[in-house]
Design the sequence.
């Protein structure tokens, strides 16, 4: 594997402070030990202090599994097969016991569906107080006062009177604000937001993204945003890592990747989105559908790629510089970047 | 109805509706029991008098005194009217008021049911949670095997096993019999221990399965992942989050099981010679003592209905969404 | 404007119980061979409006006309006869197909219900429909679980097409699909609409999707139509502040330019 730095900010040089998160060659599998099928394979990424990285992909891309693996929250039958994870320069074992002192304090998470992510039978206040008291030594009264402050920070009106409400009494947007408030409880160095706006109404999505953006800046937290939506990435993140079939396809600064995508997958994906401000007769779809598992060898996108050759099915292309500062994993890039992808 | 709405009227309305439901259920049960007893073949006079009562005159007089010569509709009306005044009639056999017979049989049955339920819960909650936490492990398989044994072994087999162990082999407990709690508290507990354990083990089998399944389901929910993401300890995740939510389906089955216990009590009371409602019913069905059977069944039905009301009340405590949906 | 009106709501209000009406004084029409995009957020009443177009609920005021007939004047038989001409495609292809019914049976069901054709004719029609939506007819005996999300939505579309309807209601048909699959289904729906001169009532929260597929756009907010017209008019020159807000929010998700 020649997967060196998957993503880096132009100014984020090695000389500076250790990155908040560094993942090296992460692989995740599902199934019985020894007979696992791979869902994430060879993913590496770096988020500098206060940085914002988007993990973009469709279902089966491995974006959520990558995030859950980092936080040690993989579901039952999934486990990390290989890879190294460091937080602020310190190596951690995401599956280890000490993770409960890391989660909620150094890494906080926000999930997709704010209805199911909150315990339906406990009050908002109870759940906030639990998050606050999981780390640190505040007594119950102080924790409740802190809970009110947090709700005010996420701009929930009349916060003190909302503590005793139950999740079902809140709208979707308000519940997501509560999730954000919980995530902020200990001013974590990294917030992982897994599709935080997908389940919300479009106008609410915008408010929640802006709120998340503001608060991350204010608290100096780094952000790892997981989304299927390339659009959400612009304006929220500095860097983007595009995943497909559990492997890295393309990585680089958001503006660069969206304006001049190198990888055929990123190009085709952008082309399938209908434009908002122009009329087109037909869209340019990608044939086939994403698979849930990683290919053993070869490029996972090869079966759907219009440019695929024999070697695409047999040899896994490594991530390599594809016109700095962007990297991409595609055999076609050898013969000169910028020539791949057809005209629309 | 949206919004918060007035809480008390909504509650009062639902309580009123529940009372009405209760009356309807009781009346239906009373009617069904009345009809069934009269459809089943067998004549109380012949049974009471023995087979040698062949004199038609005697039989006719006996029928008249019991009111059995009247049209069925009239018997029904009279019985219903009396019932509404709290008069369940007199035993055909002994002439003792049915309310008194039932009143005497009720405490042992209630005590047996309560003890069995308590044992069932005390076994099933820790075992169910433990199995769920280690789903698929040898410990889980052991617990599941215990549960299936509890469900599939007939109560009388469990009872005989317990008698052999505690009464015959260890000589710790009496084989059978009953002493009222008020007369001799320790003796009461000694006589009730084995019947309660019999029914408790049967109940625990079902409840362990439910608790295990529900906790496994809840552990897969998103809010559990959120709790872990907050850095909450695993023990707290399991008990304060997963088990707390698993209590909702668990209580549903607990209510049903409490009802099943009442029928299980018939066999258990017979084996251990406990003078409870189960024994009262069995004895008097054989004797075609209509008023006693009707009275006993009615009381059992009332207990069922009260258990259901209790389960509804528990839902209100356990699930805020039920409280919110009250007015609808 | 001499084209026949397929669906028309006039002063339509719908209320459940005593709560706030779900639809208030909605007037809307859809001409034959056109696609109307109905845009709104959750709770806006867009689903209720699509149910009204199926004749599934009673208006508390106003009326719903399908193919020129006021639904209130029809008896049960009349409604059933009319319903063959209106079919629906739902959002979630995972729950909208019965898992115990083979794909062929699912597509044939509307034919059986409406007494169209004999066994043989139905089998041929199912094969023809499957080819039409880009599925191999040899897969007719398989069950929905063997298909991916996009394929299932193709099955749902084939089923909707089976009784040769004139109006198809599409209730968020691509929002549960992967981005790379959405475009396939959108192209398919647009091609079917053109080829068969279908009318589509396309319910969606996604303005760029609506811009691609629809001729006209109606924006619904809290049970009221706040803006309605030809799509370029509505999307390029919005007048209502809510439409402006929706467009702003949609820019976030649209194809980066």
Sequence:
């Amino acid at each position: 594997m020649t997967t060196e730095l998957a993503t880096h900010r132009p100014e984020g040089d090695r000389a500076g402070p250790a990155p908040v998160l560094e993942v090296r060659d992460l692989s995740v599998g599902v199934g019985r030990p020894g007979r696992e099928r791979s869902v994430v394979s060879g993913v590496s990424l770096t988020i500098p202090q206060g940085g914002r990285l988007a993990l973009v992909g469709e279902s089966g891309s491995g974006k959520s599994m990558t995030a859950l693996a980092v936080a040690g929250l993989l579901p039952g039958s999934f486990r990390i097969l290989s890879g190294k994870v460091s937080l602020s320069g310190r190596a951690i074992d995401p599956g280890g016991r000490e993770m409960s002192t890391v989660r909620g304090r150094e890494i906080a998470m926000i999930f997709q569906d704010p209805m199911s992510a909150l315990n339906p039978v406990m009050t908002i206040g109870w759940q906030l107080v639990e998050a606050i008291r999981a780390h640190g030594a505040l007594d119950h009264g102080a924790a409740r006062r802190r809970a009110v402050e947090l709700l005010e920070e996420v701009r929930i009106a009349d916060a003190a009177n909302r503590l005793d409400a139950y999740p079902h009494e809140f709208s979707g947007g308000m519940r997501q604000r509560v999730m954000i408030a919980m995530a902020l409880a200990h001013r974590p160095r990294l917030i992982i937001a897994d599709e935080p706006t997908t389940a919300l109404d479009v106008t609410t999505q915008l408010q929640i993204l802006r709120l998340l953006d503001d608060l991350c800046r204010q608290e100096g937290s780094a952000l790892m945003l997981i989304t299927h939506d390339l659009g959400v990435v612009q304006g929220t993140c500095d860097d983007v890592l595009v995943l497909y079939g559990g492997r890295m396809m393309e990585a680089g600064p958001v503006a660069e990747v969206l304006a001049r995508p190198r990888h055929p997958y990123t190009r085709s994906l952008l082309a399938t989105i209908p434009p908002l401000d122009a009329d087109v007769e037909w869209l340019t779809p990608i044939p086939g559908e994403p698979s849930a598992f990683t290919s053993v060898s070869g490029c996972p996108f090869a079966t759907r790629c219009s440019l695929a050759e024999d070697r695409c099915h047999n040899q896994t292309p490594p991530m390599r510089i594809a016109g700095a500062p962007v990297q991409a994993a595609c055999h076609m890039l050898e013969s000169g970047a910028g020539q791949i992808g057809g005209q629309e | 109805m949206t919004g918060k709405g007035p809480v008390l009227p909504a509650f009062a309305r639902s309580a009123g509706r529940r009372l009405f439901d209760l009356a309807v259920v009781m009346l239906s049960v009373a009617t069904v029991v009345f009809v069934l007893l009269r459809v089943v073949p067998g004549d109380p006079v012949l049974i009471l008098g023995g087979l040698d009562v062949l004199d038609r005159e005697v039989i006719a007089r006996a029928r008249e005194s019991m009111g059995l010569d009247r049209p069925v509709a009239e018997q029904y009306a009279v019985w219903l009217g009396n019932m509404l005044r709290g008069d369940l009639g007199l035993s055909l056999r002994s002439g003792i008021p049915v309310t008194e017979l039932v009143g005497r049989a009720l405490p042992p049955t209630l005590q047996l049911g309560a003890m069995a339920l308590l044992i069932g819960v005390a076994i099933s909650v820790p075992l169910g949670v433990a199995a769920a936490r280690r789903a698929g492990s040898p410990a889980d398989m052991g617990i599941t095997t215990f549960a299936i044994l509890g469900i599939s072994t007939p109560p009388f087999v469990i009872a005989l096993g317990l008698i052999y162990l505690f009464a015959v082999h260890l000589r710790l407990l009496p084989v059978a019999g009953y002493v009222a709690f008020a007369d001799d508290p320790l003796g009461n507990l000694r006589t009730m221990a084995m019947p309660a354990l019999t029914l408790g083990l049967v109940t625990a089998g079902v409840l362990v399965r439910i608790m295990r399944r529900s906790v496994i389901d809840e552990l897969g929910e998103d809010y559990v992942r959120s709790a872990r993401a907050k850095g909450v300890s695993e023990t707290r995740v399991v008990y304060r989050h997963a088990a707390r939510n698993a209590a909702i389906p668990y209580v549903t089955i607990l209510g049903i099981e409490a009802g099943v216990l009442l029928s299980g009590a018939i066999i258990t009371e017979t084996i251990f010679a406990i003078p409870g409602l189960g024994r009262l019913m069995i004895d008097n069905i054989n004797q075609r003592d209509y008023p006693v059977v009707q009275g006993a069944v009615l009381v059992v039905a009332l207990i069922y209905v009260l258990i259901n009301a209790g389960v509804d009340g528990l839902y209100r405590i356990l699930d805020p969404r039920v409280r919110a949906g009250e007015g609808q | 404007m001499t084209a026949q009106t397929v669906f028309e709501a006039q002063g339509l209000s719908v209320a459940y119980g005593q709560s706030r009406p779900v639809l208030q004084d909605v007037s809307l029409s859809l001409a034959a061979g056109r696609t109307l995009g109905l845009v709104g957020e959750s709770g806006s009443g867009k689903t209720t409006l699509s149910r009204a177009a199926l004749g599934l609920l009673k208006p508390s005021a106003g009326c719903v006309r399908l193919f020129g007939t006021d639904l209130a004047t029809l008896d049960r038989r009349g409604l059933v006869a009319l319903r063959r001409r209106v079919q629906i495609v739902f959002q979630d292809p995972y729950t909208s197909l019965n898992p115990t019914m083979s794909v062929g049976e699912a597509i044939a069901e509307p034919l059986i219900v409406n007494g169209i054709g004999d066994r043989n004719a139905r089998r041929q029609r199912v094969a023809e429909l499957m080819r039409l939506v880009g599925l191999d007819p040899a897969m007719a005996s398989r069950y929905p679980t063997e298909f991916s999300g996009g394929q299932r939505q193709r099955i749902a579309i084939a089923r909707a097409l089976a009784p040769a309807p004139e109006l198809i209601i599409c209730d968020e048909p691509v929002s549960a699909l992967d981005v790379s699959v959405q475009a396939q289904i959108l192209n398919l729906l647009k091609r079917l609409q053109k080829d068969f001169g279908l009318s589509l009532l396309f319910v969606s929260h996604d303005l760029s999707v609506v811009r691609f597929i629809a001729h006209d756009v109606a924006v619904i907010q809290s049970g009221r139509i706040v803006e309605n017209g030809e799509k370029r008019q509505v999307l390029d020159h919005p007048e209502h502040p809510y439409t402006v807000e929706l467009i702003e929010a949609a820019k976030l998700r649209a194809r980066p330019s």
User: Anything to note?
Assistant: Confidence is low (pLDDT under 50) at residues 1-6 of chain B. Residues 128 and 212 of chain B are 4 Å apart (CA to CA). The radius of gyration of chain B is 24 Å. Chain B touches chain A through 24 residues (CB under 8 Å).
